[in-house]
Amino acid sequence: MTPSSRTPSHAPTPGAPYLLRSHRADDIGWVIARHAALYAEEQGFDTSFEALVAGIAADFIERFDAQREACWIAERDGANIGSVFLVQARDAAMHRPIDGVAQLRMLLVEPAARGLGLGKQLVAECEHFARRVGYRKIVLWTNANLLAARGIYGAAGYALTSIAPHHSFGHELVGETWERVLS
Predict the structure, then answer these.
(1) What residue ranges define each of the domains in the chain, with the CATH number in brackets?
(2) Using CB atoms within 10 A of its CB, is residue 45 exposed (0-12), middle (13-18) or buried (19+)?
(3) Is this prediction's pTM over 0.70?
(4) How far apart are CA 155 and CA 159, in angstroms?
């Protein structure tokens, strides 16, 4: 089964000048490169952030379970303008899937596409998919300085469940865990 047959593409709807589709060849490399470039430019993150994103992307490719996981790429006029991943959440120690829990990862909206509601739509796609395949909860990790993303998560019904200061990507940051119960 090809990636595009697992998750249907969505043609642009009125007021949303983009389409959402499943990942295909070269998309994961684009996700890594754009995260590295945008976070370096906008947040001043060093190359350790690129390494983190590359590791997450590699895990996605190596463990991909089309029945439980998905990636959406937003496209406009043939160019990628956003992405998000929904994967099985895994315990930190043994990396085993946590039953009934999904993890939202690597939400990205290109600067030229911000303000279109794309971030909100990508997060909504994760929730629709998670409900359809039977997840009970979605978790995610972000940093407190990513205000736009935090706004999207809060508006979508996610609740902040924990915070933890950390030194990463060349900065002192505050990591946040958010979750959305899907009862």
Answers:
(1) 19-181 (3.40.630.30)
(2) buried
(3) yes
(4) 10
